[in-house]
Specification:
Shape of chain A: globular
Largest interface: A-B, 36 and 28 residues
Shape of chain B: globular
Radius of gyration of chain B: 17 Å
Structural class of chain A: alpha+beta
Order of helices and strands of chain B: HHHHHHHHH
Helix content of chain A: 10-25%
Oligomer: heterodimer
CATH topology of the largest domain in chain B: Helix Hairpins
Distance between the termini of chain A: 27 Å
Number of domains of chain B: 2
Number of helices of chain A: 12
Largest sheet of chain A: 7 strands, mixed
CATH class of the largest domain in chain B: Mainly Alpha
Chain lengths: 701, 173
């Protein structure tokens, strides 16, 4: 049976993974990259670049280079998110049929799922090259609090890319799956997922192989990108002050500042101060090349992003309340998403939950790995019954040893003593993590920043940082560091309590089998060498991330079962503009509920019911999904005909409706018309044709 | 995994069961027991457990949705209190149960009565039909065994008894 893959279709990066021979592993491209930037560039030739190649074009062909589509997908043209993005994105958005949002580039209009489909086609091609077989079946992840429209649209994107979407899976649930089954009979786990564009918190209850989602909540417009914008804003202020150049009024310049800001932010995850320098930001007609440098301390970054991070905890409170779980009852807090690398985020999470958060699997890959596990479960056939299935292990290449967590609560003061020597060689302060994104080279003062033409490498390891430095002992920290919050005390987090396979203690062996992520034998005492999958230069052949050395399989377990929930309450509009809830938020899926609707006029043969998702009692304050049109109703005096409508939320979290004339069994049909969706066969056909018209630029070999 | 037919018979029997019976918990079960029971229910009927037998997925989905309905109600104290009051008046479902809202998946099309040929066999078969309709599978089994004894050559009847055994096995898990 062909392999089924898991795809984390992210705001900024997309990752594809697969379970092969019981090991979940991230698939790399021919150059060894695991992350495919979710960027699509339309070339004048008609071909389309996706990923790194497209990222380069974001700098010099911005109007035809599309990114951050995930923030807009499934959102109607008149939604605040789309209207807000219109002014900020350098490509053109337009209104399509049925209130849809479209992208206009090179004279064509594309719906948003079409753009995502290009990204999916690219990762499909990467997976096929690596696995050496066609890849069709897949599980695609979405933020847990994506609504019905966003899920349905993501599924359309998968189909357009030629994928059979086995499941739309929630990202935090996928992460929990990757982290393995409970180590105790009963365990409550929180997954804190701060990604590029979205924030999600999910509370799960684990018992043996059952993963039950108790509650999920989130903010689809809050992520690491927002921190970039804040930093870019500070850069713009600085530019205005020093050079009277208003970058905020110049979208192209501001776009570049955002890219610089992102790099600065990343650097500050591993350093306490960093400086960037750019000499071609200001257009040439303003005179000779302008030298500009911007310096920021980690304390300043943390101060600037504090409000954003605090916002996540309001959402966390909602989720904990819905789950009926105080933070003290949580056994584990798992940190997911690129923003998990920010030391402040880990620190704040620890303060909030009272637990050291766990980042054991590379936060960039963990969602895709979990999706791959679910794909392998849903893709099994009769020959692979669930009795023979067990919880797959995570490839060693995706396991990271530790992240730095600072002990002392921050005392953020902007007038901290300035650390001089930002241009000194970077201090090996932080556990450079295997497979993790190490410090960016070329960002210190001594190196000019390559602005144009240089790919913005997401996973390029600094050669020095690739070596394993996990702790401070022996590394004399400069005195100045003591002034910085958390500069001194750092500790490592290992999770779970390390199974000591060799000890021969049967209870420990049981523990290992309950969490068979670390292959027995591949002990931590022999850390793998440099992360082979990341090495630039002479490219390895397209291959899976290196699998661990052959190790005895863990004892078979029952395959995991996920019980996921619907994130939003589903309701119908009633007289007076109120919303009548049919299915409450956090109800397990699949589920359904029936409701009878009566005609309001004599001889009425159609009834229209508007449906929404959200927690407000007023219909207008929720997200309107669209309307259900009931037709074929028997002509009769008003109120005498009652039509029972069944609202079903399927395992993907997508709504379906069925109608039945309650009295007569008359053939009443219900048609759900989603807002902004182009789900009619003709629409799909047109979108498919446009996909065919754009070949992807072939993968480099 | 159970066959589509057995799941269909089991689904039919759910219509006459209380939420407590569906999740197999006593009326005074504490919240933790209800949660544990729902996990067990999920292991048996979650449609993802049937991916290897695609023809059974839709029936399993219908069963699972009934379990979710029961769990949703019993795991929320105010809803459970209201349900208990309704139950005292004989209301098995929390929903304002409008007639035939959920189209049931096709149960085995022919009634046992039509399958049985002899007069004595039909007598037992009619009773078995009635017990299946009311969710009393064990009583139905006794009648169906008698019907089969009347008609040892009736293979269709024997097949239905096999399905019933399978459904009973589901019930006793």
């Amino acid at each position: 049976m062909a392999l089924a893959v898991g795809i984390d279709l992210g705001t900024t990066n997309t990752v594809v993974a697969v379970v092969k021979d019981g090991v979940a592993q991230t698939i790399t491209d021919a150059q060894g990259h695991k992350l495919v930037p979710s960027v699509v560039a339309f070339h004048p030739s008609g071909s389309v670049l996706v990923g790194r190649g497209a990222l380069e074009r974001r700098l010099n062909d911005a109007p035809n280079t599309i990114y951050s589509v995930k923030r807009l997908i499934g959102r109607t043209w008149d939604s605040p998110e789309v209207q807000d993005a219109r002014g900020k994105l350098p490509f053109e958005l337009a209104e399509g049929p049925n209130g849809a949002t479209q992208v206009r580039t090179r004279g064509n209009a594309y719906s948003l799922p079409e753009i995502s489909a290009f990204v999916l086609r690219q990762v499909k091609a990467i997976a096929e090259a690596a696995l050496g077989e066609p890849v069709v079946r897949s599980v695609i992840t979405v933020p847990a609090n994506f609504n019905d429209l966003q899920r349905a649209t993501t599924k359309v994107a998968g189909r357009l890319a030629g994928l059979d979407v086995l499941r739309i899976l929630n990202e935090p649930t996928a992460a929990a799956l990757a982290y393995g089954p409970a180590t105790k009979p009963r365990e409550r786990v929180a997954v804190y997922d701060l990604g590029g564009g979205t924030f999600d918190i999910t509370i799960l209850d684990l018992s043996e192989n059952v993963f039950e989602v108790l509650a999920t909540a989130g903010d689809t417009a809050l992520g690491g990108d927002d921190i970039d914008v804040i930093v870019a804003g500070r850069m713009a202020e600085d530019l205005l002050k020093k050079h009277r150049f208003d970058a905020a009024a110049n979208p192209a310049a501001f776009g570049r500042l955002r890219i610089l800001a992102e790099e600065l932010k990343r650097t500050l995850s591993t350093r306490d101060v960093s400086t960037i320098e750019a000499d071609d930001l200001v257009p040439a007609d303003r005179g000779a090349a302008l030298k500009w440098s911007f310096r920021m301390t980690r304390a300043e970054l943390e101060w600037s992003s504090l409000a954003l991070v605090e916002r996540t905890f309001r959402v966390c409170n909602n989720a904990l309340e819905a789950a009926g779980t105080p933070p003290s009852e949580l056994e584990r807090v798992i940190l997911v998403g690129g923003a998990a690398r920010m030391p402040m985020v880990a620190r704040k999470v620890e303060q909030f939950f009272g637990k050291v958060p766990i980042v054991r699997i590379n936060p960039d890959e963990v969602v895709a790995l979990g999706a791959a596990i679910q794909a392998s479960l849903l893709g099994r056939d009769k020959t692979q019954t669930k009795e023979t299935a067990f919880h797959p292990r995570i490839a060693e290449a995706s396991i990271i040893e530790a992240i730095p967590v600072e002990e002392a609560p921050p005392s953020i003061e902007l007038d901290l003593p300035v650390v001089e020597g930002a241009n000194a060689p970077s201090l090996p302060l932080v556990g450079a993590t295997k497979g993790a994104r190490p410090a960016m080279p070329g960002l210190v003062q001594s190196a000019g920043l390559p602005l144009v033409g240089a790919p913005v490498e997401a996973v390029k390891p600094a050669p020095a940082a690739a070596s394993k430095t996990t702790t401070l002992p022996g590394v004399p920290a400069p005195k100045a560091m003591d002034f910085l919050p958390g500069g001194a005390g750092r500790r490592l987090v290992f999770d779970p309590p390390e199974p000591d396979i060799g000890a021969g203690d049967s209870s420990l062996v049981d523990l290992a089998s309950a969490w068979p992520s670390v292959p027995p034998g591949a002990a931590r005492s022999t850390p793998p060498a440099a992360p082979a999958a990341h090495v630039e230069g002479p490219a390895p052949v397209p291959a899976l991330a290196p699998a661990p050395a052959p190790a005895p399989l863990p004892p078979p377990r029952r395959a995991p079962l996920l019980i996921d929930v619907t994130p939003h309450s589903l309701g119908v509009e009633t007289a007076g503009g109120f919303c009548d809830v049919l299915i409450e938020a956090n109800t397990p899926v699949p589920c359904d509920r029936s409701r009878a609707f009566a005609t309001a006029r004599d001889n009425q043969t159609t009834v229209t019911v508007r449906v929404s998702q959200g927690e407000s009692k007023r219909f207008a304050e929720n997200t309107c999904l669209g309307e259900v049109e009931l037709s074929g109703i028997k002509a009769a005096p008003r109120g005498t005909t009652k039509i029972a409508v069944t609202f079903e939320i399927d395992a993907d979290g997508i709504l379906h409706v069925k109608a039945r004339d309650g009295d007569t069994g008359h053939e009443t049909t219900a048609h759900l018309q989603l807002l902004g969706a182009q789900s009619e066969p003709a629409d799909l056909e047109a979108m498919r044709a446009r996909q065919d018209a754009h070949p992807l630029v072939p993968l480099p070999r | 995994m159970a066959s589509r037919e057995a799941l269909g018979v089991f689904l039919q029997s759910l219509g006459r069961k209380t939420y407590y019976d569906i999740l197999r918990v006593p009326r005074d079960a504490p919240p933790d027991a209800i949660k544990a029971a729902f996990h067990d229910f999920s292991l048996l009927y979650h449609p993802d457990q049937y991916v290897a037998s695609p023809d059974a997925v839709d029936v399993a989905t219908e069963i699972y949705k009934r379990g979710v309905e029961a769990y949703r109600c019993l795991s929320r104290a105010p809803l459970r209190a209201r349900y208990d009051r309704g139950l005292a008046r004989g209301k098995l479902r929390f929903e304002p149960s409008k007639p035939s809202t959920v189209p049931p998946p096709p149960p085995p099309a022919r009634t046992l009565e039509t399958i049985a040929r002899s007069r004595a066999g039909k007598g037992h078969a009619i009773k078995a039909d009635r017990y299946i309709d009311t969710g009393q599978l064990e009583k139905a089994r006794l009648q169906l065994v008698s019907a089969c004894q009347c008609e040892p050559d009736n293979e269709e009847l024997a097949e239905r008894l096999r399905i019933l055994y399978e459904a009973l096995a589901l019930e006793s898990l």
